[in-house]
């Protein structure tokens, strides 16, 4: 616990005598705080296991950089070597050979710079992977509330990025100083493709597919095929039939073996044109096909990086609201502290299941604290039940008299009976 | 949580990656050197002399590059990296829960509602600039309605943190009736702290003046408290050595700050804790149980999507218990208006239906299932929690 220094000229010496007393208070409070999270710490290890995406995404990013750097080095090196090869078998004059080799030297120097920059990025990404591991490891009972607070912010940034609220995501990450703990740069890549698709351009999406060809193939992705279909449909829409046919031969035919049915359906648009009323074909010309492409891209993108297909926020909210949902949440006297007392949360929870209750949980009407063996329930002669703590306090203040706050009935503390709830 | 295996796998990747990139660097370096050497040789040959000379140099360079070990090492070092690169994600999948969306229900979570919730969360956290940016980007302009009350709360709280109670006192006296109605003595607590500050820093006379003006209205309702505060006058300037030194504890400021926030939110019709924070925290606690459940429910995804009640209980911490729930220990039914909880003469509590069943099986009295007491059904009392 941090104790603020006292301003207003209350120097340390003046305050020194007060220290033992205030320390005692502080340590009492700390002890109370420590007792509460005991259960939480047992939940902690389970909840850390939920953080797969948190570690997986920066790793996939790192791996991607390594692969791309290596590919470009390999390509350049073999280009240089084959340039030497071809020069040795050609009829170069001496001067030609000199200028040829000089150009190769400067090409290698360029490659060297590129490689240095590449490994700088690799090292940064390695550090980020490490930083996330360290962050997970740093969670313990002492910093749990702060750590959970950061987790909520991470979850919110994830939501913002998936919803394309990029500026908010960047602002939240920056003001909370959690840039290393969120994946803003990974989403830059997605942003380019998404924005192009929203402008009805497929080129960046196709380039992305080419970049990730082997992995997309492994997961049997249809995304590239869908992009090609859309381009074809656009040619038909523009009445560019010859080009459409050429396009289909070149880019669609190779997919015939796996997606024949869809291929045929789309090719049939040649006969129907964009004005068709036939429902099967009309839908292919609808603008929302582009939105579908955006959604499809997002799914592929999430899969590639090992992200959940739904925003983390939605996943946690669903689980939390189901766990909290009881029929009592929808009654008028639902306490404000329950998120489900609010209309917006009730709306979200509407289609979720109720929680199951296997044990009694009694919340004291007066103190709102849980009644358990340490603070057992006591029964007034009229059958109303309150916690021992609340009733003792009331008796202390009112010379042993108890007034039932809900019925106004007055009795003596000695009239109370114990109730045993199992 | 044990992260050692994951860390080792990560370190292994990094080690190999560094090795690989230094190998690359070496190879390029060496190719460059060979070419430069050939270049030097070329330049030293006389332009007028024989043509085969430079041909030979180029051919020589070609074989040198071909035989260079570094180039073939480029490939092998990359291959060595493949192992760790595929091992790390496997380790992650082993140590973590690879798909936490397994228990997700495919229901439409209304985006507008979520965005509204997020915007008010950002404002209540004091992240006003982020909140504005979000409301703008998400097109939730009406969400900014909550901004100005939270700005006020935040300013007052900030002032309290720098030991300025004026704004808080002003707010408390303006809302004094409402505070009283909700049973809060925040105003007295603020005055008490201010009084102690004055007593400590400005002396007895000022403190007495302050007490007469601001504490005396509370004299009848909080007699003991006021008496104690007045006794502090005897220790003016050396309160830290008095029996009342706990009044100086810095934690009083922290506590009062929380109390102020609680009351402010209460009057706004809001909870003290962010409802979004509470829900997500409950989700973090509950999700592991749900995921375990999904492993058992494999192949029953359809059933899961339409369930009205979770088939297993989810144990949440105390702080998430907002409602009294009585479950009859005999029948496992939840108490209702028709089947209320009943107190037996021994102090054990069962639901009415269970008592009816138990009393039917014997003639007059029955034995409590939890203790040896003989119970008379007619002597059981209904409880109200
Ligand atoms: Zn009993």
UniProtKB/TrEMBL annotation, chain A:
Any one annotated GO CC term: GID complex
Record-annotated RING-Gid-type domain positions: 334-407
Alphabetical list of Pfam families matching this protein: CTLH (PF10607), zf-RING_UBOX (PF13445)
Zinc finger intervals, RING-Gid-type: 334-407
Listed name of the protein: Protein MAEA homolog
SUPFAM superfamilies documented for this protein: RING/U-box
Lineage: Eukaryota, Viridiplantae, Streptophyta, Embryophyta, Tracheophyta
Subcellular location: Cytoplasm
Keywords: Cytoplasm, Metal-binding, Zinc, Zinc-finger
Biological process according to GO: proteasome-mediated ubiquitin-dependent protein catabolic process
The keyword Zinc appears for this protein: yes
All copies of domain CTLH, residue ranges: 186-243
One Gene Ontology molecular-function label: zinc ion binding
Annotated gene: LOC110789655
Signal peptide location: none
PANTHER family: E3 UBIQUITIN-PROTEIN TRANSFERASE MAEA, MACROPHAGE ERYTHROBLAST ATTACHER-RELATED
Keyword Transcription found: no
From TrEMBL, chain B:
Alphabetical UniProt keywords: Cytoplasm, Metal-binding, Zinc, Zinc-finger
PROSITE patterns: CTLH, LISH, ZF_RING_2, ZF_RING_GID
InterPro entries in the cross-refs: CRA_dom (IPR013144), CTLH/CRA (IPR024964), CTLH_C (IPR006595), Fyv10_fam (IPR045098), LisH (IPR006594), Rmd5_dRing (IPR037683), ZF_RING_GID (IPR044063), Znf-RING_euk (IPR027370)
Gene: LOC110790776
Cellular component aspect of the GO annotation: cytoplasm; GID complex; nucleus
Taxonomy, superkingdom: Eukaryota
UniProt domain RING-type: residue ranges: 328-371
This protein's name: Protein RMD5 homolog
Residue span, RING-Gid-type domain: 328-371
GO molecular function: ubiquitin protein ligase activity; zinc ion binding
Location of this chain's protein in the cell: Cytoplasm
Lineage: Eukaryota, Viridiplantae, Streptophyta, Embryophyta, Tracheophyta
GO biological process annotation, one example: proteasome-mediated ubiquitin-dependent protein catabolic process
Zinc finger residue extent: RING-Gid-type: 328-371
Gene3D superfamilies cross-referenced by the UniProt entry: Zinc/RING finger domain, C3HC4 (zinc finger) (3.30.40.10)
């Amino acid at each position: 616990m941090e104790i603020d220094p006292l301003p207003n000229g209350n120097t340390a010496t003046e305050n020194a005598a007060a220290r033992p007393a205030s320390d005692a208070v502080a340590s009492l409070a700390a002890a109370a705080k420590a007792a509460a999270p005991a259960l939480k710490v047992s939940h902690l290890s389970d909840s850390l296991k939920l953080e797969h995406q948190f570690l997986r995404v920066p790793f996939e990013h790192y791996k991607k950089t390594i692969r791309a750097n290596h590919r470009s080095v390999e390509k350049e090196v073999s280009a240089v070597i084959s340039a030497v090869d071809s020069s040795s078998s050609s009829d170069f004059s001496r001067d030609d050979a000199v200028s040829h080799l000089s150009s190769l030297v400067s090409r290698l120097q360029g490659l060297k710079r590129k490689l240095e920059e590449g490994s700088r990025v690799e090292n940064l990404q390695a550090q980020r992977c490490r930083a996330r591991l360290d962050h997970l490891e740093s969670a313990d009972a002492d910093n749990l509330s702060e750590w959970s607070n950061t987790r909520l912010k991470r979850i919110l940034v994830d939501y913002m990025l998936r919803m394309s609220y990029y500026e908010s995501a960047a602002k939240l990450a920056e003001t909370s100083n959690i840039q290393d703990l969120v994946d803003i740069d990974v989403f830059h890549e997605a942003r380019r493709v998404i924005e192009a698709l929203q402008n009805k351009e497929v080129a960046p999406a196709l380039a992305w597919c080419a970049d990730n060809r082997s992995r997309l193939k492994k997961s049997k992705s249809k995304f590239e095929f869908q992009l090609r279909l859309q381009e074809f449909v656009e040619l038909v829409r523009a009445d560019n039939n010859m080009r459409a046919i050429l396009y289909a031969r070149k880019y669609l035919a190779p997919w015939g073996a796996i997606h024949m049915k869809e291929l045929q359906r789309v090719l049939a648009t040649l006969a129907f044109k964009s004005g068709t009323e036939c429902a099967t074909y009309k839908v292919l010309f609808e603008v929302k096909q582009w939105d579908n492409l955006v959604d499809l891209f997002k799914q592929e993108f999430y899969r590639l990086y090992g992200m959940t297909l739904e925003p983390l926020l939605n996943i946690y909210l669903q689980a939390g609201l189901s766990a909290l949902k009881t029929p009592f949440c929808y009654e008028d006297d639902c306490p404000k502290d329950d998120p489900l007392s609010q209309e917006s949360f009730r709306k979200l929870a509407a289609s979720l299941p109720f929680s199951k209750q296997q044990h009694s949980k009694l919340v004291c009407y007066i103190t709102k604290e849980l009644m358990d063996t340490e603070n057992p329930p006591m029964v007034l002669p009229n059958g109303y039940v309150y916690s021992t703590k609340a009733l003792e306090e009331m008796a202390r203040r009112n010379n042993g008299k108890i007034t039932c706050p809900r019925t106004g009935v007055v009795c003596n503390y000695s009239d109370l009976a114990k109730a045993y709830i199992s | 949580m044990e992260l050692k295996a994951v860390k080792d796998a990560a370190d292994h990747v990094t080690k190999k990656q560094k090795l690989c990139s230094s190998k690359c660097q070496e190879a390029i370096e060496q190719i460059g050197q060979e070419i430069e050497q050939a270049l030097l040789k070329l330049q030293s040959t006389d332009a007028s002399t024989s043509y085969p000379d430079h041909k030979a140099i180029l051919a020589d360079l070609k074989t040198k590059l071909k035989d260079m070990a570094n180039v073939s090492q480029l490939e092998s070092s990359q291959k060595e990296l493949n192992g760790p690169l595929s091992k790390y994600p496997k380790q992650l999948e082993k140590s973590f829960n690879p798909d936490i969306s397994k228990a997700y229900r495919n229901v439409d979570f209304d985006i507008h509602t979520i965005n509204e919730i997020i915007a008010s969360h950002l404002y209540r956290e004091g992240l006003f600039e982020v909140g504005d940016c979000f409301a703008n980007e998400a097109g939730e302009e009406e969400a900014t309605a909550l901004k100005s009350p939270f700005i006020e709360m935040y300013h007052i709280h900030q002032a309290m943190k720098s030991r300025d109670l004026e704004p808080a006192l002003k707010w408390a006296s303006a809302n004094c009736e409402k505070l009283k109605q909700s049973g809060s003595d925040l105003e007295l607590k603020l005055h008490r702290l201010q009084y102690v500050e004055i007593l400590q820093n400005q002396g007895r006379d000022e403190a007495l003046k302050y007490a007469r003006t601001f504490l005396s209205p509370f004299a009848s309702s909080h007699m003991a408290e006021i008496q104690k505060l007045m006794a502090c006058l005897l220790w003016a300037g050396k309160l830290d050595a008095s029996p009342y030194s706990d009044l100086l504890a810095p934690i009083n400021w922290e506590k009062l700050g929380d109390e102020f926030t609680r009351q402010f939110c209460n009057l706004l019709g809001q909870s003290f804790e962010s409802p979004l924070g509470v829900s997500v925290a409950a989700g973090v606690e509950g999700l592991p149980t749900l995921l375990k459940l999904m492993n058992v429910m494999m192949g029953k995804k359809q059933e899961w999507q339409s369930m009205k009640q979770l088939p297993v209980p989810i144990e949440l911490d105390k702080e998430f218990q907002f409602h009294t729930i009585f479950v009859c220990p005999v029948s496992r039914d939840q108490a209702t208006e028709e089947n209320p909880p009943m107190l037996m003469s021994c102090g054990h509590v069962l639901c009415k239906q269970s008592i009816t069943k138990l009393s039917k099986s014997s003639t007059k009295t029955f034995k409590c299932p939890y203790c040896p007491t003989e119970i008379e059904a007619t002597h059981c009392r209904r409880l109200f929690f």
